[in-house]
Amino acid sequence: MKRLVLALGLLLAAPAQAVTPDEILDDPALEARAREISKGLRCLVCRNENIDESNAELASDLRVLVRERLVEGDSDEEVLDYVVDRYGEYVLLKPTATGANLVLWIAGPAMLLVAGGLGLVYVRRRGSAPDAAAAGLSAEEEARLRDILEE
User: Name one GO cellular component term (predicted).
Assistant: First the structure.
């Protein structure tokens, strides 16, 4: 009995789709396209959750908008372009690597290469620097050390 309860609990703990029955399209092909498009759109309230999994009102509005555009005959790209024009590129879970985003895509690896180069230069210079301990103390430093130790 305990195992049955545990199994049911695990099944119910699976992430539920937030799409309500009144949002589902009658045409299975259009509904499949809508689901595929929805997987790539970010819920602007929940941030890192797609609109298909979000229960937020805005996500519901976006799901309805996607389905309306598909019913009107838009292609998948036209639907995405429409949503991006209306809400900005932040609505995409996988932003494009063009325009201003290209700077963001390149900045991380570029900073890693620069930091690696600086680290390499530092290590090489440090290895070729004279050893301060091997040079010993100057006569002035030895006298100062004796004075400190005598006090």
Answer: plasma membrane
